[in-house]
Amino acid sequence: MNTHQIDLTLFSSESCTPCQALKHRLSLWHQDHKNLLVHFISIDEKKDVAAKYGVLSAPTIIVFIDGQEAIRAAGYFSLDELLQKVERYESLF
């Protein structure tokens, strides 16, 4: 029984073109990983949440496992590599 929670959060901005592409790819990826929670947060609308997590730019992805930050990627990063890391964590539980 999986008692661990994995949350993937994309912090994005309306003016961030790569953010829109990431949001689309994450939505498609999430269809095969329904046991994970995926959140999309606009840093334009939720400045307080972005500040709470130290998000200074978009795109930023933070992966939380049981509420603790496990992975962070910001700016230019490989989404495929990040998702492979998430899948490795997922396979542990």
From TrEMBL:
Domain Thioredoxin stretches: 5-87
Cited InterPro entries: Thioredoxin-like_sf, Thioredoxin_domain
Pfam families linked to this entry: Thioredoxin
Origin superkingdom: Bacteria
Name of the featured protein: Thioredoxin domain-containing protein
Taxonomic path: Bacteria, Bacillati, Bacillota, Erysipelotrichia, Erysipelotrichales
